[in-house]
Amino acid sequence: MRRRLGSVRARATLGATLVVAVALLAAGTAVLLSLWTDLSGQAGTRAERTAREVAAELAAGQPYGELSLDDDDRPVQVVTEDATLVAVSEHLERISGTGTDAVRPATAPAAPADDDGEADDDSAGTSVLRPGEIGEDPSYSDGSATVDGDSADYRFAAVEVETEDRGTLTVYAGAPLSTERTAVRTALTVMLIGFPLLLAVVAGVTWLMTRRALRPVEGIRREMAAITASADLARRVPEPDTHDEVARLARTTNETLAALETAVERQRRFVADASHELRSPIASLRTQLEVGAAHPELLDVPGAVEDTVRLQRLAADLLLLARLDAGERPADARVDLAALAREESGGRSRVTVDAEPAEVSGSGGQLRRVLANLLDNAERHARETVAVTVRREGRWAVVAVADDGDGVPEADRERVFERFVRLDAARSRDDGGAGLGLAIARDVAVRHGGTLTVGGTPEGGAVFRLRLPAL
């Protein structure tokens, strides 16, 4: 059960059901309150109508005993200002919620008269009504009554009437609330039955729709599990023919797999090429040492030293590439490329330098390595001269290393930056190195936020341009 509730589909279904349940509860409560208010208002209107009919008879001077109070379903009371019951409907046995709980009328005292026969002003109370007028604003209350043995809840309306000889009277008339309560109970019953069914439908539809929406995700998960188990990075996850988030997830996953496959393949080639490159100097050094051990007079010490130096350089190159692949960030130091170019060109007889100050931020050691690799490559291919220029072009510092050799064919101008690549297959390793210099130079340039490209010179040679953000 915990596992099912932990799934996206289960959480989505539960969430949608809870939201709908809260909405239905709020809507149902509002509907019931509105229904009860409306129906009780209608009952109040009926009660007011009855009270006004009796009040009209009182205003016309009708005696208490001749009032129309014979409606068994609507209890009516007529009360004086001092809360004395003077008239009541027949069969009323008990009442509450009105001005008095009395159900038996008392004899109303006669209104005192002045010498001219008019009622005393004090006996009229504080009513603002004139004799014969009925109050415009009734008051309402809820209560209960027992009529002819049947008890029920009622909505009471109270209407005041001013009479000529009996002062201010209040007529209480009630309308039963049984119909209203029945309607509310019926609506509540419908809601109690219908809402769970509606919630079940919502949960079912959400479950099915979520299952359909997440089916591609399950396919992606299964394929990723298969790729992990088989270690076959050439496989790809299925991409849905849609334009939603799942399709974008599948495309991003395939792009990640492609990048991972490329990185792993590149690592495999790197290990294989490195092993191959290391094998030659190690084998040569071992042969020379074995010969020297058997025949000391035949030991080629300069050759052994040369192989050792070559092996040392190759190991240093491999170590630097490993650090670059690991994402090592360059130091944040100020480096003057002009001064660096002059230092690296010193002692190289065929190299000329034309440099203006251009400072960049980075690792002085790594940038020195870039210039050394570019100069080594240029000297290896130049016929007579190598020209180094350092210029500031806008926000860039540009170092150009040009030679007057045969140049680099346009089709190979990206391949030269791949690791262990030699364009001249016939060139010996002793003359050409391991094919890591240009690869290291580009990686260092990229790590410093710059670029390294190769183009051609008007004389037909090659020119390598290093562009770095200037300070």
Could you walk me through the main structural features you see in this protein, from its secondary elements to its overall organization?
The chain has helices at 2-5, 8-59, 178-230, 245-294, 301-325, 337-345, 364-381, 429-432, 437-447; strands spanning 76-79, 85-88, 92-96, 139-147, 150-162, 168-176, 333-336, 351-355, 359-362, 386-393, 396-403, 451-456, 462-469. By secondary structure, it is an alpha+beta fold. The chain folds into three domains: 1-230, no CATH class; 233-328, Orthogonal Bundle (Helix Hairpins); 331-469, Histidine kinase-like ATPase, C-terminal domain (Heat Shock Protein 90, 2-Layer Sandwich), CATH 3.30.565. The radius of gyration is 52 Å and the shape is rod-shaped.
List the helices and strands and how they pair.
Elements: H1 2-5, H2 8-59, E1 76-79, E2 85-88, E3 92-96, E4 139-147, E5 150-162, E6 168-176, H3 178-230, H4 245-294, H5 301-325, E7 333-336, H6 337-345, E8 351-355, E9 359-362, H7 364-381, E10 386-393, E11 396-403, H8 429-432, H9 437-447, E12 451-456, E13 462-469
Parallel strand pairs: 8-10
Antiparallel strand pairs: 1-2, 1-6, 3-4, 4-5, 5-6, 7-9, 10-11, 11-13, 12-13
| Helix proportion | 40-55%
Number of DSSP strand runs: 13
- Ranges with pLDDT <50 over ≥5 residues? 1-5, 108-126, 425-430
Taking strands numbered 1, 2, ... along the chain, how are they ordered across the largest sheet? 2-1-6-5-4-3
Count, helices:
9
Distance between the termini: 62 Å
- Main pleated-sheet profile: 6 strands, antiparallel
- Number of individual domains: 3
Molecular shape:
rod-shaped
Strand content: 15-25%
Average pLDDT works out at 84
Radius of gyration: 52 Å
Class per helix and strand makeup: alpha+beta
Spell the H/E element sequence: HHEEEEEEHHHEHEEHEEHHEE
